[in-house]
Amino acid sequence: MKSDHLLKLLYDKNLHTVRPFEGCSETEIKLLEQELAIKLPESYRQYLLAVGHNSGRLFQGTDMKYSQLKELQYAAKELLRENNDLILMPESSFVFSMHQGYEVKFFVLSVGDNPPILEWYEGSTKGIITLFDTFEEFLSDSIYKHAAIKWLD
Description:
Blueprint: H1 3-12, H2 26-36, H3 42-51, E1 62-63, H4 69-82, E2 93-99, E3 103-108, E4 117-121, E5 129-132, H5 135-147
Antiparallel strand pairs: 1-2, 2-3, 3-4, 4-5
């Protein structure tokens, strides 16, 4: 989903707040890629370009802002270690979301421009599961679920 289409959808679904949506610049994304020595999938890059700094009501309470991404790479692995979980995330994993310090969402960088979304959460007996077949499917599902919430302004 292109960044402009994503922004339109977020406005149409009333997921904005008084603070405007704020995306990342190409320069910021390239800097992150350089610092982590990675190449992000195009579908995720479009998300960052649209709302990487502020996604309004979408994902409130979840750590996934641009400023948190480098720390999330370490925090997720540390969480698994603290839980004595023998499950290891694939080497080329990129953690893009941590919710309330116990739920981790990530994708494998080598899978393409619209990778499956994987999840691990503390206390799970299932290990790592495939949550969605693509990042765009995850994003669309999240938008529609957040749009169904009756927000108190």
